[in-house]
Amino acid sequence: MARKYDTKRLWKPEPAHVVFDEFQELDTIAGQVDAIVRSEIQHHGNAASYVFAGSNVRMMEMMFADRKRAFFGQTQPVVLEPLDDQPLATYIGDRFADSGKEITAPTLGALLDLVRGHPQRAMAAAHALWDVTDRIADEERWEVAYIKLMDDVDDELRTLWDQLTPAERRALVAVATGVGPFQRGEASTRGSVAARAVRGLASRGVIAQVERRWGVVDPLLVEWVDERRTR
Q: What fold characterizes domain 164-230?
C-alpha cells in the first residue's frame, strides 16, 4: 500500500537574499519595467528579500521616492559609507601576497590616500598597480600605475564633465579644490545659481554632504579636475 506524504510540510525553501545592482538601468528601457518587477516579487512573501543598488542617486530617487512609481513606500534607503583603511589595506596586501607579489607600506599608503575608501576606485587602483608589478610594488611602480589608472578613467570622467552645465562645472571645481560652492573665491559660484548647481551635482551622485561639508564622491574625479586646472 502506497503511503501518502504532505509535500507542503516536507519541503521548506530556504529564504533567498537577492541583490539587483545598478537597478536604475531599468529606466533606460521603454515602459516602467520596475512595475513589472514589483508585480512579480510582491508574491514572494518571506521566501526572499531584496536589495536594489544603484550609483545614480537621481535616478534611484526617481524610482523609489516618486509616489507614481511602483516601489514608492516599499523600501528603506541605505547609504554606504567609504571603506575603512585598515581592512582595505589588509585585503589588498593579502591579495598581492597570494599572487606572489609584495606591496610596500609607503606604496599602500599612497594608494589608500588616493582612493579614500571608495570601493570601486580602490579595486581599480589596486589592479592597476598589480598589473604593472613583477614582484615588488614600490613607489616607482605606483607612479606608473597612477598614470595608467588615470588614462583608463579619462574618457569616463571627460564624458561626465561634458554633461555638466557651466555652473555645475564651477561648483564641482570649487568643491574639489576645497573652496566650497558658496564661498567667495576664483572657483566658487554663489546664490541661486550655485544652489541649483549643487543640487544638480548631488542628484547625479557627483558630490555628497558629510558633516555639513560638501565633498566629491569619486576621488579620481578630484585628481582629474586638479590635473585639468594645472595644465
A: Arc Repressor Mutant, subunit A (1.10.10)
> What does the alpha-carbon distance between residue 102 and residue 134 come to, in Å, rounded to a whole number?
9
Yes or no: say if 217 and 205 are a contact pair by the CB < 8 Å rule: yes
pLDDT digits (tens, 9 = 90+) for 121-149: 999 999 999 999 999 999 999 999 999 99
Q: Side chain identity at 92, as an amino acid letter? A: I
CA 145 to centroid of chain Cα atoms? 21
Backbone φ and ψ for 210, nearest 5 degrees, come out as -125, 120
Question: Do 220 and 149 contact (CB within 8 A), yes or no?
Answer: yes
Which CATH class name applies to 85-153? mainly alpha
Q: Where are the domains of the chain?
A: 14-64, 85-153, 164-230
Residue with more model confidence, 183 or 207: 207
Could you tell me which of 218, 226, 177, 224 has the C-alpha nearest to residue 201?
Answer: 218
Crossing angle between the packed helical segments 119-131 and 105-115, to the nearest 10 degrees: 140
Specify the range with the lowest mean pLDDT, choosing from 151-155, 181-185, 195-199: 181-185
Say what the pTM is.
0.75
Look at residue 5 in the predicted model and tell me its pLDDT. 53
What ranges in the chain are assigned the alpha helix state H?
A: 7-10, 33-41, 57-64, 85-98, 105-115, 119-131, 139-163, 166-176, 191-203, 219-230
Q: What does pLDDT average to over the chain?
A: 86
Quote the cell numbers at residue 135. 614582484
